[in-house]
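Batch job 17 of 40 flagged for manual review because the log was empty.
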Amino acid sequence: MAPEACPACGGPLAPWRCAPAAEPPHAPVALRRCARCGTAVTAAPAGSHESGAYAPVAPRGARLAAPVLAAFDRRRLALLHRAIRPPGRLLDAGAGRGRFVAAARAAGWDATGIEPSARGVAAARGVYGVTLEQAAIEDARLAPGSLDAVTLWHVLEHVDDPAGALERVRRWLRPGGVVLVGAPNLASLQARLGGGRWFHLDLPRHRTHFTAAGLRTLLARDGLAPARTHHVLLEHNPFGLWQSLVSRVTPTPSWLYLALKRAAPLRAGDLVPTALAVPLAPVAALAELAAGLAGRGGTVAVLARRD
């Protein structure tokens, strides 16, 4: 069930729009939006995290993407290191395949991770030699005050109770410990241009669609004082804007992403307009850079400290 009040600021929610689901057949999903902070919620049951783009198969071009993904991990560590540096205990909550846990260990952290999916835990062990605890945030057992840092990288939008998740994270942190949260920004330029086909909607798996202001408000309500908000992020933002614009003309929303994830067929109706739009990628990257500098990045990273 969708919440009756905004999970970020507690403001009133009202019917907003319907947008296509991320996976075929792209059935419409209803959204409700907060009039106070602009955050929206998905008014539909949660989608599967074991199928479609989340299926346990290697994406097309995975080996070619490996150096780029490693660079993204180094950038995430650099954001964290602006507030706290190793050695120390770090938890990656929603660790996926364990790639960032491995990168954090290489950087000097005593890093561990929790991941609710069995496929992620198995892949972490097989690919990166990392042992993750199979648990969601609400199930994980960590001692209060036992962590120096927690990363929630594109995880908080997936949970049904983000305030409850952050409350648990705050208890795990020692006084002065930090949390780094990455999430899509509904107040971004690309969200406005993409409309119902915005790449980062990912319906209905994304439960809460934060604005940057809403995310900071939620962190502060849970005793985590926001220190920095970063809008210029290469990991998701340039591609997110380009894919959102292309999705306005392709029959399948986010077709290239789904095709790379082996979740959509290779059809001329999607392939041709996508190929024709490739020269627009540098323009989209520059537009996203300008949006980020203006505080309207497609995704944001918020660094907050336990009071």
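Reviewer: the log was empty due to a logging misconfiguration, but the result itself is present. The chain has a mean pLDDT of 95. Unflagging and moving on to job 18.
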